Known about the structure:
Blueprint: H1 3-12, H2 17-68, H3 75-79, H4 82-92, E1 95-100, E2 105-108, E3 133-137, E4 147-156, E5 159-169, H5 170-218, H6 236-252, H7 254-284, H8 293-323, E6 330-333, H9 334-344, H10 346-351, E7 355-359, E8 367-370, H11 372-389, E9 395-403, E10 406-412, H12 434-439, H13 447-457, E11 462-467, E12 471-479
Parallel strand pairs: 7-9
Antiparallel strand pairs: 1-2, 1-5, 3-4, 4-5, 6-8, 9-10, 10-12, 11-12
Amino acid sequence: MSNKRxxxxxxxxxxxxxxxxxxxxxxxxxVSFYFMLAVGRSYIYDQVLEETTTSLAGxxxxxxxxxxxxxxxxxxxxxxxxxxxxxxxxAANCQILIIEDNGDIIIDTEQKTKAPYYNxxxxxxxxxxxxxxxxxxxxxxxxxxxCLCVSVPLYSSDNFHxxxxxxxxxxxxxxxxxxxxxxxxNVYYIVIGLLLLTYIGxxxxxxxxxxxxxxxxxxxxxxxxxPPIIIHSNDEYGEMAETLNVxxxxxxxxxxxxxxxxxxxxxxxxxxxxxxxxxxQAFREGLIPPExxxxxxxxxxxxxxxxxxxxxxxxxxxxxDRNxxxxNVTxxxxxxxxxxxxxxxxxxxxxxxxxxxxxxxxxxxxxxxGDSEKxxxxxxxxxxxxxxxxxxxxxxTIRTSxxxxxxxxxxxxxxxxxxxxxxxxxxxxxxxxxxxxxxxKTGTGLGLSICKEIMTAxxxxxxxxxxxxxxxxxxxxxxxxxxK
Length: 484
């Protein structure tokens, strides 16, 4: 990016949502106001003019059909109808003229003394008589104000006698148009005011909380004391603030998590390395008699196996994080998987006189959907964990059940149980309670973490119920194969 571009961004500042909405609101106000002035006023005037023209033409037609064009069409006979013309003029709110075929104005409801002394032919104003309507016209100055003139020809027995003219003052049309325009303008102001209130409401109820969320979360950092975002509301913003506060709290504890991680991994690597180093040094210095060498070789192999297992589990967990565990989901028999796991760990169970009790749903196979290899690993870790913490001469119960299209698999031991304060932490990597530290010298603290990662990848639950001194029950869930 060029320096000029950077300076431009610095000058105009950051574009925020509130600025965008304000700009959009101002554009709406300006455009709509221009439309009101340039288009709305003209449109209303045109509509009022058209409506008035139609109304006058209808009134003139009704007056003609009322019988004023009888056989005796003379100035004298028509003047007898002057009261009727006056009534019609007041009803139409206009001025009525009758012009003979020779151009003389013989009746004028407004200027009775002036007619018939004005001839439209002599004044060159007869052209308007042949138009249906003429707007803004004074008949060559005869009318005192500009008017809308609507003319209707008068006939009697197919003989043409003259014209009936309705002259409606422009001021009445203008006043009427202004009346409608003012109503429209008031409605416009109300709408703009409502939009402004809406904008103010959005600002206080949406943008201020959003600003707090942005300001609070912007400074969230790992290892820092991230203060909570305070939003006193039970809406989506309140829920988001609570979520961000949890995130901030977790970020604040990241250093603690890291220290625990390093403490756990260093402890689990240091113990076997210390043993290997000590035994190798003893061999080098000739402190181990030849008849005891084989036993110490077995110890060295066991410690290296422990290091290999720990390393493989760390690599496996890291691959889960990176690839989100690519699953090979297929139907398989979970009962067969249970049998394979118990057979694989049977030697360890027999050496401690621990019996397996299997309570399986039905006599045949139970077909579920999942990654069979990874579910095998989950079961193996759970049963191995149960063997570690179960006392000699006890039993482990493996149970399956079916409910609402799901298979529930549980592993129950009669061991020392899990302290209440440790229940939520057993899924953490390298986590070991004080009980397990003293009893399990070979555990890595990764088995349950792996189980949790695998079940999360399956989008299924795994949970534990435990009581100190009684035992623990681990349960996970898998969907049944719909084809079975």
